[in-house]
Amino acid sequence: MTNKEQLIDQHIREYESRLKHIDELYERAHGAIKHLDEKHETRSELKDYDEQRLKLQQKADEIKTMPIKNWREETVQTAGPMAIWDVLAQKLEDFLERHDK
For 66, which DSSP code? Predict the structure, then answer.
C-alpha cells in the first residue's frame, strides 16, 4: 500500500469514526424523546439532524468509492464534511443536554 493509499484509508476511518459517534448521539437523543408526541417540535428538530446525518453518510460513501487519482482533489473540495460532522455532533450533544434526563 502506498503512502497515498494509507492516507486515504486513514481519512476514511476518521470519517467512519465520526459518523459512528453521530449515530450514537442520535440514538441517545431519539431515546430521550421517545415519550413525546409524534407531532412535538422536538421530534422535528431531531428529524432535521437525521437528514443531515444521511447527507454525511452519502458523502462518506462517495469518498470511499472515489478513484484514488481523484481523491485529493475531491477531498479538498469536500473538506467541509469534517466541519459539518463536528457541528452536527455539537447540535446533538446540546439536544441531549436539553432533553436527556
Answer: S
**Stated pTM of the model:** 0.77
Region label for 92, one of left (φ > 0), alpha (ψ between -120 and 50) or beta (otherwise): alpha
Q: Return the pLDDT at 48.
A: 92
Residues in contact with 8: Cβ distance below 8 Å, sequence separation at least 6, in sequence order? 68, 71
pLDDT at 81: 62
Contact present, 45 and 95 (Cβ < 8 Å):
yes
Round to whole Å and give the CA distance between 40 and 2: 52
What distance in Å separates the CA atoms of residue 11 and residue 22, rounded to the nearest whole number? 17
Closest by CA to 78, choosing from 2, 8, 4, 5, is 8
Instruction: Calculate ∠ Cα 85-89-94, nearest 5°.
Output: 150
> What sign does the dihedral 30-32-34-37 (CA atoms) show?
negative
Regions of the chain with pLDDT less than 50: 76
